[in-house]
Amino acid sequence: MLDNQLLKIAQDFGSPVYVYDAGKIESQYKRLTNAFKDVKKLKLNYAVKALSNISILKLFKSLGSGIDTVSIQEVQLGLAAGFSPDQIIYTPNGVSLDEIEEAAKLGVKINIDNLSILEQFGTKHPKIPVCIRINPHVMAGGNANISVGHIDSKFGISIHQIPHILRIVENTKMNINGIHMHTGSDILDIEVFLYASEILFDTAKQFKNLDFIDFGSGFKVPYKPGDIETNIEELGKKLTARFNAFCKEYGKELTLAFEPGKFLVSESGYFLTKVNAVKQTTSTVFAQVDSGFNHLIRPMFYGSHHEISNISNPKGRERFYTVVGYICETDTFGNNRRINEINEGDILSFKNAGAYCFSMASNYNSRFRPAEVLWYNGKAHLIRKRETFENILNNQIEVDFSTKIEKQLVK
Ligand SMILES: *Cc1c(COP(=O)(O)O)cnc(C)c1O
């Protein structure tokens, strides 16, 4: 999006505000489907947790996408957005059997990643097909927090436990309709992904009634100019060839599924903040914006990089700034960033603010969560109002302290 379009949105809707470019979401969706155009049955299930606004979900529905959900609330949100249950896959980790049964009752696809739950679910509901999340123990992913395929990861059922899975399936007569993996975020090396895929194919051979193989996600997007990203086109070519060969061998045209979050929405997002203060210390110049990790936690939580630019003064001379927030705790968005000269009141734009940004926002410091705007067909649409003071007090219950506290008997 252009700086002046973003600036106008900040003026019209106030700050801080999240802005999403629908056109970018659509082009990423098309880029991925195009990379796999030679797969007969391809299914993209957008990972709701990345950005879960209902208008975003409806946009994905209009593109023909399904959704990947990790909680019963995300399932309900998907249904509310108009997805039919068969367009929703539920991939929880560490949830109760009750919640999985609730999702099954709603008719969505079930993905199980725990042997104990698999055995209980298969015993009670042998007729409901289930997909199994495998942990191939392949180290992929950008850092330890987002890498979920390693040996000590809490995700998936280990490939070393396949004999046990097979025993459960045989004993319960349950029906396994899919095999799944999701090894982590920010995959750089396609060969590692393909290696993990081979493990998935090997596993898939042992199940005779599959409808789909789900390769999860974890595609890396660029965060700054010249940054490396997952080469989707190359992955498309290589995995398509392997997948089509596997289907021949398997004797059935299976569906190839992915569940990308970041790849589809990260670059569509801009987070616009206003500079409250410029503060010179002995060692740096701070630009302090009207936000903090209550609204955008990725830099502090994962060390993620978000490009920051001054859209109020794009031609100003560049200086070095440390961009921080207004939270009473260290909340550095960016250190030593070269940014066009900042004046108080300027609007700073943070890039890659589509995935895991608003969806991780909180009310810390009793601040309001920001508004969200969707840029669609050349127009700005408000898709979430900025919170108000009522939201802060909502659900809180006041105790009457006018009566005396009863004395407790102390032994
Ligand atoms: C979070 C998650 C995804 C999406 O990962 P991205 O890196 O955002 O693409 C996909 N599948 C599962 C099971 C997840 O938990």
Automatic annotation (TrEMBL):
N6-(pyridoxal phosphate)lysine: modified positions: 49
Reaction(s) catalysed by this chain's protein: meso-2,6-diaminopimelate + H(+) = L-lysine + CO2
GO molecular function, one term: diaminopimelate decarboxylase activity
Domain annotation Orn/DAP/Arg decarboxylase 2 N-terminal: ranges: 23-266
CDD domains registered for this protein in UniProt: PLPDE_III_DapDC (cd06828)
Residues noted as binding substrate in the record, renumbered to the chain: 298, 302, 329, 356
Any one Gene Ontology BP term: lysine biosynthetic process via diaminopimelate
Subunit structure: Homodimer.
Family in the record: Belongs to the Orn/Lys/Arg decarboxylase class-II family. LysA subfamily.
Name by which UniProt lists this protein: Diaminopimelate decarboxylase
Lineage: Bacteria, Pseudomonadati, Bacteroidota, Flavobacteriia, Flavobacteriales
